[in-house]
Design a protein that fits this description.
heterodimer; A: 130 residues; alpha+beta; Alpha-Beta Plaits; four-stranded antiparallel beta sheet; 2 helices; 25% helix; B: 417 residues; mainly alpha; 4 domains
């Protein structure tokens, strides 16, 4: 079964990597890289991406002519998606454990961030009709 | 496998590959090394046989070539003084080279079965066992398996390599089940084959073609196992169940991949050839003793397949079979199906009161199927509003896109007419 693990971080929360000292940032990046490698080696990683900061985010909808109408930048949005992993595992408990490992990524001063990670099942199961 | 090889050679090679691998692993005790050697032997056969003709003893030929390849590999390894020694050195050197291909080939051993025991060992997680079985027994490429399960090839390669490591380090490869373990090990194999089939049967829109291949592969492997273990009645039972279920495939989804429930399927689309084969298999198997769960499930599938319509189905017989099934295993999903059959025989009220009891089973807590069954029963009982509510509740909880769409459409039909 596949799960998407989403790292949602509150705007202005602890995940302001741009302001971290170099060594904290390097430790954090190193952790994230080895975390993905470990998931790959376990045969569980389906995909993972980090997203560019919300400063560049646009809201888009179709206008009457079908052309895109883009709406500005949202620096004050309460929470944004920083990145995600998709894993293929044998049980929900395993997905929760992976999420907990990601949550403990080192932040300022190497202390675990303990961010909350949203875990959602991907719709890929076989139907159960008899 | 080579695309240009004619299909008869290809079928023969796929049939022989697991047998040859089993012989090699038993002799050389190194899973990865043996698999590489067998792959090379298959490649040699695929290039030579079509032009030079297949040898009289194709199995012996493959073993002979694989032995030569692994011997070469060991020599190369030894001369490089590689630290990671192949375990082949456990076999006396002269035997490694001199063992005639036919020395063992003459003995018709249960090679395919033994290899399945190895790949479906309970020490492996279900996903590892599935991947290893498709690779080592099914002979699918890592890319094909990755494609079927929609994961990156590198991830699937790691999963297979870890599974091989587990087989290697735990000594699974070299132990044959003791008589008292035999039953449980056969069951583990059947469970893995069933999971592969079920995964393939999830023909949801967009992934239909690939997943259908998994169904075909599960049937092929089960057929293979049935051929080498004809006395195992549950193997025959599982094969019959797969055939009788797969027979309905064309009717089971609409043009956009949407699910069509059994009672609304166009029965003219059912594959009569598969139904006949599954029924014949079941009729040959059932009289031979008390049936196991796969045989009972196959018998239920056969009753559905034989019925000209949902109404003309022999529901009392199906209900009785579900009762047998419940006595064989404590499975809440079986109990849910039993409730559906109860409704068909005794009416929805009797079935709904059964569901109230089942709802207390913690294993069904929050399971979408409990809500889906309740919704169907409520609809039959005429309570459209409550039925719609439970259809929606079920839709929120399923992890299958096709099923969610179906459940939402049911709810919409009841709410908006």
């Amino acid at each position: 079964m596949k799960y998407m693990l989403m790292m949602n971080t509150p705007s202005g929360g602890p995940y302001q990597v741009a302001s971290w000292p170099r060594e904290d940032l390097a430790r954090h990046i190193g952790f994230m890289k080895s975390f993905a490698t470990k998931l790959g080696k376990a045969g569980e990683l389906v995909g993972a991406e980090g997203l560019a900061g919300p400063e560049q985010a646009k809201l888009v909808r179709a206008g009457a002519d079908g052309k895109p109408i883009t709406d500005g930048v949202f620096p004050e949005s309460k929470e944004f998606l920083a990145g995600y992993w998709i894993v293929d595992v044998d049980s929900p408990e395993r997905a929760y454990q992976i999420a907990a490992d990601a949550s403990a990524a080192p932040g300022l001063g190497g202390k675990p961030l303990n961010m909350s990670i949203e875990v959602r099942q991907v719709m890929s199961a076989p139907p159960t009709d008899a | 496998m080579q695309p240009r090889v004619d299909s008869r050679t290809q079928d023969l090679l796929r049939e022989l590959a697991p047998q040859v691998l089993a012989v090699m692993v038993r002799r050389y005790r190194h899973f990865s090394g043996c698999e590489d050697a067998v792959q090379e032997a298959l490649l040699a056969a695929a290039t030579q046989w079509p032009t030079e003709g297949a040898p009289d003893n194709p199995r012996g030929w493959l073993i002979h070539v694989a032995v030569r390849r692994i011997t070469d590999a060991v020599r190369a390894e030894a001369s490089r003084r590689h630290r990671e020694k192949l375990v082949v050195s456990l076999v006396p050197p002269d035997e490694q080279i001199a063992l005639a291909a036919d020395a063992e080939g003459a003995l018709e051993r249960d090679d395919t079965r033994d290899l399945l025991f190895m790949c479906c060992h309970p020490a492996l997680s279900p996903s590892s066992a599935i991947a290893l079985t498709l690779r080592a027994v099914g002979g699918l490429s890592t890319a094909e398996i990755a494609h079927a399960f929609i994961v990156p090839e590198a991830t699937m390669a790691q999963r297979i390599s870890r599974a091989k490591q587990t087989v290697q380090t735990s000594g699974i490869a070299f132990e044959l089940p003791k008589p008292e373990e035999f039953r449980a090990r056969i069951e583990a194999v059947l469970h893995v084959l069933y999971l592969v089939f079920n995964e393939g049967y999830a023909a949801s829109a967009g992934a239909v073609l690939v997943r259908t291949d998994l169904t075909a592969e599960a049937i092929r492997l089960t057929r293979m196992l049935h051929r080498v273990a004809p006395d195992e009645r549950e193997v025959a039972g599982l094969l019959a169940l797969m055939l009788l279920t797969d027979a309905r495939r064309a009717a089971r989804t609409g043009p956009a991949g949407e699910l069509i429930p059994l009672d609304q399927q166009n029965r003219k689309l059912w594959d009569q050839r598969l139904i006949d084969e599954g029924t014949a298999l079941l009729q040959a198997t059932l009289p031979r003793g008390a049936p196991g769960p796969y045989q009972v499930q196959a018998a239920i599938a056969a009753l559905h397949d034989e019925a000209p319509s949902a109404e003309a189905t022999d529901w009392p017989q199906i209900l009785a079979l579900y009762e047998v099934l419940m006595s064989l295993s404590d499975n809440p999903m079986v109990a849910l199906s039993h409730a559906v059959a109860t409704a068909m025989v005794r009416g929805p009220a009797a079935a709904l009161s059964r569901l109230d009891v089942l709802a207390k089973d913690r294993r069904l807590e929050g399971h979408h199927r409990l809500d889906a069954v309740r919704a169907h029963l409520l609809e039959r009982a005429g309570d459209r509003e409550a039925a719609a509510r439970h259809f929606r509740h079920a839709a929120e909880r399923t992890a299958s896109t096709a099923e969610r769409d179906y459940l939402l459409l049911c709810a919409a039909r009841l709410s908006h007419g």
